[in-house]
Amino acid sequence: MRQFTARFATPEEIQAWDSHVTANPNGGNMLQAKAYAAVKAEHGWKPLYLAYETSDYTSFNLVLEKHVPLLGKYWYMIKGPDVASPDDLPGIFEANRRFCQAQARGVFAIRIEPDVEATDETRALLAREGLVKMPDLQPNDHTAIVDIAPEPEVVLKSFSSRGRNAVRRAIREGAEVVTAEPTEENFRAMFNLMGQVQQGQKNVQVRSFEYFKAFWGNFIAAGQGRLLFTYEDGKPSVGAFVVNYGRKGTYKDGGSLPRRKQYGDSHLIQWTAMNQLKELGITSYDLCGTPPAAELKNPEHEYYGLGLFKTSFTKTITDFVGCYDQVISPLKYKLWSAAGEKIARGLYVRRRHQPFY
């Protein structure tokens, strides 16, 4: 097992945060970006910036902290830790324990969700370390990732026949994808398109327009995001917000009008995003959310329709391990598990009308 030490990042490292995160072994994640930290700082979380050091690499990870009355500090290492191998996770957990005893006192639990693929071996490793499996929080803990490193024609040919035909027909019939300016009007239009999709989903707690406006605006200002539209009758009909972060592209948000006239526009907007991001050096494109691989053909799954659409670009589903809790204080965590988390989430939703996480 590799030995790690944990520390808070220096002011200079925080200033250049994104360059450090994208140099992590797995290239970091957009939800560890400085632009995202600024959004969460306005929605109930305190961003912390941690560095884990071992003999041959340093992993920089964003941690979101929330103070829980009577219990102390709860940490959420969103989409982290970023490690070179799952075998490095125990070293990170031990570093967490030492760090919370010495410099980060008052932390009673740390929620992690590393981008480590779910296998029998990784699940067993996490169980041996005493971590507690929790429900997944991020939509792309199960996802479809397209390799866009090859030449565009090679990538297009890798799509299913349905995906290829949709793209080619949309192009043939003159459909056009436009990169929209980051204006209030365009953000409102995107938010409204997202609402059209979410109306048919179960258990969806929609974040506020202000939250999305901040997210989109921050990433665009950092040169890490763009908003794409197709139009019908002069109005946006399909929208996609995509992120470029390090070597990774992500289809973060999307929406569309029902009963559109143009066939293939939703496929074309994805194909356009892939090609635009490829020009920026992006080599993989995360379509951000499908059913788990084992549930892909289950029509009762809430992401079934999304799975049908996204697997027209790639048949491969990646299942990550999802969320686990590392227990720092067993007594406080027992109270948190028994009632604390439920109460905290309920109070936050009632007060803020936003999801806790």
From TrEMBL:
Alphabetical keyword list: Acyltransferase, Cell shape, Cell wall biogenesis/degradation, Peptidoglycan synthesis, Transferase
Domain BioF2-like acetyltransferase: 162-289
Family membership: Belongs to the FemABX family.
Pfam families in UniProt: Acetyltransf_6
InterPro entries hit by this protein: Acyl_CoA_acyltransferase, BioF2-like_GNAT_dom, FEMABX, PG_Glycine_Bridge_Synth
Keyword Kinase: no
Protein name: Peptidoglycan bridge formation glycyltransferase FemA/FemB family protein
Keyword Acyltransferase listed: yes
